[in-house]
Amino acid sequence: MVGKGNQDSNENLPSDLSQSVEIFRNRLGKSSDFKAREIILPGESSPVAAICYFNGLVDLKSINKMIATVNDFLLGEKQGKPSPSSIEDIIPGDLRKSGNIDNLIQAVLDGSTVMLIDGIPSAAIVSLPGGRRRSVEEPSSQTVIRGPKEGFTEDVATNIALIRRKIRYPELRFEDRTIGRVTKTRVSVAYINGIAKDEVVKEVLTRLDRIDVDSILESGYIEEYIQDTTATPFPTLINTERPDAVAGNLLDGQVAILVDGSPFVLVAPVTFFKFFLASEDYYQRYDISSFLRLIRLFSFLVALLLPSLYIAVTTFQQEMIPTTLLISLAAQREGTPLPALLEALLMELTFEVIREAGVRMPRVVGPAISIVGALVLGQAAVQAGLVSAAMVIIVSFTAISNFVIPYFSMSAAVRLVRFALMLLAGTFGLYGILAGGIPLLVHMISLKSFGVPYFLPLAPLSFTNLKDVLIRAPWPLLKTRPSYISSDNRDRQASKKQSKNSK
Predict the structure, then answer these.
(1) SS3 call for 234
(2) What percent of the chain has pLDDT over 70?
């Protein structure tokens, strides 16, 4: 989709080469990286052809080879060979032809090469991609011990190829959109025809078509524009760097959104429990995978509730603590000047500052600063009597539990909600946690992701879809895809009866 007010004009390319090149230079502001290499035959004073491209976006070796081919052809034509009747006669191969100036200029901006011929009022658009690009590397945010080590890059064409290598199926579809009046960003929607629901695919494309903005620089822009609601801290789309994760989601019936310039691919629709599933769950035994999923869900509850519970029981409900532990906690807090709520907020904010500093620091010293800073500050705070040792343990275990969640977007939501629950716990105790937790649960149940309830298959309850949620059943039992995501084609594997019939 091209933004409003920026529709293509009907201006046609003139047949005069010098006029065409001048139009290109003027429309592109005579930019220094724009090149128009002219071809002048021996004995001629004026050029007969020109190759237009942006330096750094094309392969210069291919450009030189094409120029040599065109030069030899035109030189032979000058010596008596039949003159060309069209552009295709000069450059054989896969190319497009256009006589519209806006289309040709946009092709150059997209990284293609445009060849102009004197006397022909149309030009050839040839794709010769090149320039420096990041190679396929291991994902930095989602690492696995067992599984593929390749990750998406910033080039959408490369990302599409990575998915194609995983799913060699003719029904795998990619539909492109161009979004951004200024950036002209390519956005590609991937789905498997016959497995993904048609209404979901149509809804995704409709929401993309509604976007009218001047720039799209990352998939996060798209995520905020197409999500069902922005009034929630919880993500309703998954973003991942892993091609195998996207391939697995496509095979379940979901839709992927690839944005040129971003290594993070969006997946929709999703449910809450999808954020606790890792790619590695499907590459190792089902019992180990199920145990690790339960660990992740437990870590989610710890990261969300542990500081609040500690504040509540030490401030209001001390009778719930065993006597021996209560005496130990009281002895630790005897010399601390701050109440438990301010103590926890101080430690949590300190840790957030250290974590943010570790991200922004150079990679060589970032991890060292984070670890040493946390150890030194924690030990110094305890010795100075500002915080208790128990509070340092609570905050540290909470932070570690937060890192267990596979997707950063969900862990960030947990960090935000945790502060609100801490304030409620410090004000009303356990009743405050319930007063915040119950509306939070109701809010999560009310959320939807492209029409799919966020808490499926628990709310509403669906027993047939519980085989791959809290635990993972063995592969022979995972015969069908989730009914709330995929279309009528739900069969993953043939049943025994079908196998006998096929024989």
Answers:
(1) coil
(2) 90
- The angle, 0 to 180 degrees and rounded to 10, between the axes of the packed helices 389-404 and 408-428 is 150
Q: Which of 364, 432, 351 is nearest to 391 (CA)?
A: 351
User: CB of 254 within 8 A of CB of 267?
Assistant: yes
Write the DSSP symbol of residue 129: B
CA dist., res. 339 & res. 67, Å (int): 77
- Distances in whole angstroms, Cα of residue 496 to Cα of each of 184, 305, 474, 483, 490: 51, 46, 16, 21, 16
Q: Tell me if 429 sits within 8 A of 315, measured CB to CB.
A: yes
Structure tokens belonging to residue 136: 């396929």
Length of the chain: 503
Q: What is the pLDDT of residues 82-121, one digit of tens each?
A: 555 555 656 655 678 899 999 999 999 988 999 998 888 9
CB 230 within 8 A of CB 224: yes
Q: Which residues pair with 185 in a beta bridge?
A: 179
Residue 425 has which token pair? 């716990």
Instruction: Report yes or no: 259 and 156 within 8 Å, Cβ to Cβ.
Output: yes
| Average pLDDT taken over every residue of the chain | 88
User: What are the φ/ψ torsions at residue 178 (nearest 5 degrees)?
Assistant: -110, 115
C-beta of residue 256 within 8 angstroms of C-beta of residue 195: no
CB-CB neighbours of 300 under 10 Å: 20
pTM of the model: 0.88
Could you tell me where the DSSP H helices lie in 227-339?
243-252, 286-315, 323-333
C-alpha torsion angle, residues 134, 138, 140, 146 (rounded to 10): 170
423 vs 134: CA distance, rounded Å: 45
Closest CA to 465 of 452, 478, 446, 449: 478
Peptide bond into 269 cis (omega under 30): yes
- Tell me which residue of 5, 120, 115, 135 sits closest to 65, measured CA to CA: 115
CA-based nearest residue to 440, from 463, 461, 416? 416
Dig out the tokens for 66 from the structure.
């094409």
* Residue 399 and residue 224 in contact, taking contact as beta carbons nearer than 8 Å: no
d(CA 134, CA 188): 20
Q: How far apart are CA 269 and CA 249, in angstroms?
A: 10
φ, ψ of residue 79 in degrees (nearest 5): -85, 10
Tokens (6 digits) for 194: 């016959």
- Are the CB atoms for 307 and 345 separated by under 8 Å? no
Rounded Cα–Cα distance for residues 189 and 306 (Å): 40
Question: Are the beta carbons of 286 and 205 closer than 8 angstroms?
Answer: no
DSSP state of 283: T
- In this prediction, residue 498 carries a pLDDT of 52
Sequence-distant (≥ 6) Cβ neighbours of residue 378 within 8 angstroms: 392, 396
